[in-house]
Structure formats: structure tokens, C-alpha cells
Specification:
The protein is mainly α and about 325 residues long. It contains 7 helices and 4 strands; from the N terminus they run ααααααββαββ. Helix 2 runs antiparallel to helix 4 and helix 3 packs antiparallel against helix 4.
């Protein structure tokens, strides 16, 4: 996108300066000047905006990530302490249960023989057992209270530690963002200054051309009046194909004998035994196995047709001949 805007600005900006320098604000010039100026202003604004945004994005992509503290160890430590607290409470509760059960069994054993002699002591035994049960319940409730207090303290410590970590992370993030914004703003100002230098250089060039009387003149060359490369390649390929096809058609036509030239005699066995000339198609009597033409004229014509150039032999029937005979 930025390349497209830069190329467009490189094309439209010189025309904008020329329109201002040559005061092309009347007649048909105005119809071209207004769109060119509007497009140039839009390209400059869009390129400046994208340069600023791109500078900040580049700095954000290249900047190292901020140092963020991990709160997972705090959470793991809290879970471990919480499990340890529950485990201690369960062990203490089990010990209290076993302790009071032993006390109750001791009371029953102590009153068993006494009740056998005096049954009225049952009420004393039940009162003492009831007192032990109340003490057991009070001990269990006290253990549960200590457990809840311990869990509450752990939760408060966890929240305080997490708050400190979150505050440190927020401070680190804000510091990293401020640093990134500072470097991004510097790079953005640099790109805007470069854009201004680019516009200023084109303006200076156009002012210099106008002041020195320099004009753009089209200088045609030999290739300006020739078809393009694609057209020339297409023309060469078509000619090559036509030449090859027409040469094959001509060779095929040359091998086809004419009916009026066939010497059909009464002796058909002799005609069938004779060979046909590769050039004119007339029957002839072959003297050797490689004899395929009826005469030297047909042989030379066939060679010229195949090689697409005049055939100039050095020997005919084993004798040297001069090339001037074929000129």
C-alpha cells in the first residue's frame, strides 16, 4: 500500500508543481489542474498517516516484551498451604475423636463393677459421659475455628501478593508502552521529515526546470516506429509455423504423381517393377539401391526444396563441375 502511494505521489507531485508554476488555472487546464491537486493532497495526507501508524507498529513489533511477573507460584503456594491446613484439621479431629472415645471407654470400665453393686450410679456415669461429649464438641468447634481463621489468613495473604504482582506488572507494562510510544513518535517524525524533504526536492527540481527553460522533448528512436516485442514474437512464430506447414504441403504435393504423366503401357509388370521419383513421381529404372530420383534435375530441385536454398553440387556422375553453371 505504501509503495502504491509513493509511486502515485512521484507521478502526480511534479504535475501539481507545474500547474502552480505555470498558472494553469483557466480554460481546459483547470479541468486537469483541480483533480491533480486534489489527488496529490490526498496522497500526501494518506502517506503521512500511514507513515506515522506504520512507525508505531514497527516499534511495537521490534520492542522486547515487558517483564511480566508470573502469579502461578503464588497460587500454587496458596493451594499447598490450603491443603496442608485441611490435612492438619482432619488429623487433629481424628486425634480428638480417638482421645474422647478412649475416655468414654475408661468411664464405662470404671463404672461397670460399681454399677453391678450399686445400680443407682448409672446416672453418674451418663452425666460424666455427657460431659466428655460436650468437651469433645467444644474441642472440635475450636479446631474448626482455628482452621477457618487459618484459611482466611491464607486467602488474605494470597490476595495481597496477587495485588502486588498485578501492580508490578501494570507498572512494567506502562513503562514499556511509554518507551515504545516515545521511540514510535521519534520514528514517525523522521518519516514525516523524509516526506517533507521528498516534496521539497521535487518542488526545487520543477522550479529549476522552469527557471532554466528546460523542457521535456520526445526523442524517437528506431524502435518507436516498430511493433512491440509481443507483436514481433507473435509475427515470427506465425511466419515460422506457416513456413513449416507450407513446406510440408509443397513436399507432399511434389510426391503426388500426375495422372497424365504416368506412362501406362501394355506391359504393366514393367511399370509395377519400376521405382517412382521422389521429386516428380515419374517411374524410372533404379540402377542402385540408393537411386531415388529419375534425373539430376529432380535431385537438385528436391535438395533446394528441402534445404530452402540453391543447391550447388561439386560433382555430377563422379565428375567435377563449376558452380557458374548454376548461377
Amino acid at each position: 500500500m505504501t509503495v502504491f502511494l509513493e509511486v502515485g505521489l512521484r507521478k502526480f507531485l511534479p504535475y501539481s508543481f507545474r500547474a502552480i508554476l505555470y498558472r494553469r488555472f483557466s480554460g481546459l487546464h483547470l479541468l486537469i489542474t483541480v483533480p491533480v491537486l486534489l489527488i496529490t493532497v490526498a496522497l500526501v495526507v494518506a502517506l503521512g498517516y500511514l507513515s506515522v501508524q506504520g512507525s508505531h507498529e514497527i516499534v511495537r513489533q521490534m520492542a522486547p516484551p515487558p517483564a511480566i511477573a508470573n502469579d502461578k507460584p503464588i497460587q500454587d503456594r496458596f493451594d499447598q498451604d490450603r491443603k496442608q491446613t485441611w490435612l492438619i484439621w482432619k488429623n487433629d479431629s481424628s486425634l480428638l475423636e480417638r482421645k474422647f472415645q478412649a475416655l468414654e471407654r475408661g468411664v464405662e470400665a470404671r463404672y461397670r463393677t460399681r454399677i453391678a453393686h450399686n445400680p443407682s450410679l448409672v446416672s453418674y456415669k451418663e452425666a460424666e459421659i455427657h460431659s466428655l461429649q460436650r468437651k469433645k464438641i467444644d474441642a472440635l468447634l475450636e479446631g474448626a475455628t482455628r482452621r477457618d481463621q487459618r484459611l482466611g489468613n491464607l486467602e488474605a495473604d494470597r490476595k495481597e501478593a496477587l495485588a502486588k504482582v498485578a501492580q508490578l506488572n501494570e507498572t512494567s507494562l506502562q513503562s514499556a508502552n511509554a518507551k515504545t510510544h516515545r521511540f514510535g513518535s521519534g520514528l514517525a517524525w523522521f518519516t514525516l521529515i523524509a516526506l517533507g524533504v521528498f516534496v521539497f526536492s521535487i518542488g526545487i527540481e520543477e522550479v529549476h526546470r522552469k527557471g532554466s527553460g528546460m523542457e521535456e522533448v520526445v526523442v524517437p528512436s528506431q524502435y518507436s516506429f516498430r511493433p512491440g516485442l509481443i507483436e514481433e514474437v507473435q509475427w515470427a512464430v506465425e511466419n515460422r509455423i506457416n513456413y513449416q506447414l507450407r513446406a510440408k504441403i509443397k513436399a507432399f504435393e511434389a510426391l503426388t504423381p500426375m495422372l497424365e504423366e504416368l506412362e501406362v503401357g501394355s506391359d504393366r509388370t514393367l511399370i509395377q517393377a519400376a521405382n517412382l521419383c521422389r521429386k516428380c513421381g515419374k517411374p524410372y529404372q533404379a540402377r542402385t539401391t540408393w537411386h531415388i530420383f529419375c534425373s539430376n534435375k529432380c535431385r537438385f530441385a528436391f535438395r533446394e526444396q528441402k534445404q530452402s536454398r540453391p543447391f550447388l553440387p561439386n560433382r555430377v556422375n563422379g565428375e567435377k563441375i563449376g558452380t557458374e553453371l548454376f548461377e
